[in-house]
Amino acid sequence: MQPAASAPRPLDIAGLELAELESHLVGMGAPRYHAKQIFAWIHRRGVTDFASMSDLPKALRARLADTWTVSTPALIRKDVSTDGTTKYLFQLADGTRIESVYIPDTPAQTFCISSQVGCAMACAFCLTGKMGLTRHLTAGEIAGQVRVLAHDLGLAAPDRAFNIVVMGMGEPLHNYDATMAALRIVGSEAGLAVPARRITLSTVGLVPAMERLGREPFMPNLAVSLHASHEEQRDALVPVNRKYDLEALIEACKRFPVARRGRITFEYVLLKGVNDTPDDARRLVRLLDGIKGKVNLLPLNAAPGIPFERPDEDRVDAFARILADKGLTVSVRKSRGRDIRAACGQLIVDEGVRGARAAKVSPAQALAEQL
Ligand code: SAH
């Protein structure tokens, strides 16, 4: 017997940019201008139910409800830290899980979003790195995190503003196309209209992708995870350095077209007795000579399974002072949300990945999940 013909799968428009939405509408014989309305309903107003899109013709609403869908990360849990930082745990359509973090008043409101389930970069001090990569997120899943947080927090209104840092789980430049499409979606005037200057993308230093990023019309601010002042040290802490070494990375930063008055942020995780000496600080100063940059020091957020310690405060201060004395702008990242494991490098889905066909649980991930 022939299996019954199943209805075609609905088109998921969560990750479509406005122009793509327009061509789909035109393709189905509907006027192009409705795309802007639909886009605004979804992204600006947070409405994903076509029947409620009251400025569309009734017949079109019915047709869209039959043939289109808007997938949205399902909120599983929200943890609020004593400092107000809020960690959102989401489940995706295939059962995999990701986290996003809301950091209030820094001084602006900031959303930290994920670009992958897990991460392939395996930085020695990062908990997410222990998971390995399960899969890339789609543009819809990346933009969806911003959409859900903005509406949940009442920050989607045009008179409210927030920043976005692509510093959650994953290496955004390893998932280049989906990440950039998502940024254009959240940046679109028809949607949440987040300006590029309010967005910062943090990369481990994938040099060819950085070159590409430098040519993007909608270009976020760039943060580079440096973490070391010489090749051998970076090889050990950031394995991708064996492919794109410090020298190539620094050259790429020198070529990067930072906006006028803009600067590249260099992130430097401080590991006790490993990369936190005065010599390291002085080497870092020399390394960054001639680059429009600033340094953000990240004293390690320690976690079980991470074989490093956080340096003492006076050690951090001494390191910062050496940089500042040489004229570098330097800040020390306050660790937010540590009590709910929402701090940098602590994002990991620690309660198992349920019902996930696509989820491959690596031994490292299984170990991390027990911690
Ligand atoms: N893949 C991107 C985004 C990573 S998360 C990148 O590498 O830049 C953002 C920052 O947190 C990175 O600089 C990352 O190296 C840092 N980080 C990771 N684990 C950390 C930890 N345990 N303590 C402090 N910072 C950490």
How would you describe this structure to a colleague?
The chain is α/β, with parallel strands linked by helices and 371 residues long. 32% of the residues lie in helices and 18% in strands. The protein contains twelve helices and 14 strands. The strands form three sheets. The chain has a ten-stranded mixed β-sheet, with helices on one face. Strands 1-2 form a two-stranded parallel sheet. The protein is elongated. The termini are far apart. The C terminus is likely disordered. The structure holds S-adenosyl-L-homocysteine.
Indicate the topology.
Layout: E1 11-12, H1 18-27, H2 34-44, H3 58-67, E2 68-69, E3 74-80, E4 86-91, E5 97-103, E6 110-112, E7 116-118, H4 127-131, E8 133-136, H5 139-152, E9 163-166, H6 176-187, E10 199-203, H7 207-213, E11 221-225, H8 231-237, H9 246-255, E12 264-270, H10 278-287, E13 293-299, H11 313-325, E14 329-332, H12 363-370
Parallel strand pairs: 1-2, 6-9, 9-10, 10-11, 11-12, 12-13, 13-14
Antiparallel strand pairs: 3-4, 4-5, 5-6, 7-8
The chain binds S-adenosyl-L-homocysteine.
Residues 121, 123, 125-126, 167, 171, 202-204, 225, 267, 269, 298, 300-301, 306, 344-345 line the site of S-adenosyl-L-homocysteine.
